[in-house]
Amino acid sequence: MINKLVERIKETNAPVVVGLDPMLSYIPEHIQKKAFDALGETLEGAAEAVFEYNKGIVDAICDIVPAVKPQIAMYEQFGVPGVAAFKRTVDYCHQKGLIVLGDVKRGDIGSTSGAYAAAHLGKVKIGSAQLTPFGEDFATVNPYLGTDGVDPFIKVCAEEKKGIFVLVKTSNPSSGEFQDRLIDGRPLYEWVGEKVAAWGSSLMGESYSYVGAVVGATYPGMGKILREIMPKAYILVPGYGAQGGKAEDLAPFFNPDGLGAIVNSSRGIIAAWKQEKYAGFGGEGYADAARKAAEEMILDINRALEKN
């Protein structure tokens, strides 16, 4: 799957992934009204609104970006109907030719980690059948429990030709409370980066490993160091735009050929219609606003990369 991701990035000339992280406050009134009229102000109604909202965005951007990244917590908040909307979203994105990065941040040990890996990247055996539960192409993984927590994912990735992105240096302000702590004179994130490189060395695609890393756009200096530590790991870069990351800070995450990283934007795209800059689209044009914001992000990043 890493080969397909690289291929799609080249085809679209867009090292961009759109985060499908829906909140009810992002969803235009006409979509909410239709869903609530049909299903009431219920979890089912909210989940239906979320899915219809996602469909509009996916239809608008599927030809200009290679991938999307649904964050499962935004669906789980609506209970079982929300989780069903997550699965419907994954399936719909695949129908539209998009690669799906499941932002699930799973991390446990033994059979528990194996169950998470099977749920999101693999298959489960039920009687004589092998069935796919969620079916994302990649998943985010928390490495805090060590190799025991990551190995089950690597096993499934090898079987299914899918990938993971391991949290190395996250974009949130308090990430340094643990991730920047010095261990034998070096910050913890460097040690984690070395493990990512080691895990990925035995699971290679054509140019990059099936084991990637998450490194926040808000820390370009650290990104440069980690790019050197993990030369074959694709880097998923959150934090662009709304979280403060700027296009000119992204070059260290990429290799000289312009590959090696994919940059995420969530509410900056999916809720663009609520920004003053795109207010003219209105709620009815929320999907067109999302496309416009995505186009401008792609241009912004490519211009910045061309300067380096």
Question: Can you offer a commentary on this structure?
Answer:
The protein has 308 residues and is of the alpha/beta class. The chain has a single domain, classed as Aldolase class I (TIM Barrel, Alpha-Beta Barrel), CATH 3.20.20. The protein is 46% helix and 17% strand. Strands 1-2-3-6-7-10-11-12 form an 8-stranded parallel barrel, surrounded by 7 helices. Strand 10, helix 10 and strand 11 form a beta-alpha-beta unit. Helix 3 runs parallel beside helix 5. The longest helix is centred in the C-terminal third of the chain and has 21 residues. The radius of gyration is 19 Å and the shape is globular. 49% of the residues are buried.
CATH architecture type: Alpha-Beta Barrel
Shape: globular
CATH classification class: Alpha Beta
Report the average pLDDT across residues.
94
Distance between the termini: 28 Å
What would you say about this model in short?
The chain is an alpha/beta fold. The protein has helices at 2-12, 29-39, 43-61, 73-76, 79-95, 110-121, 147-160, 176-179, 188-201, 220-229, 267-270, 286-306, and strands at residues 16-20, 67-70, 99-106, 124-126, 129-131, 138-141, 163-169, 182-183, 186-187, 211-215, 235-237, 261-265.
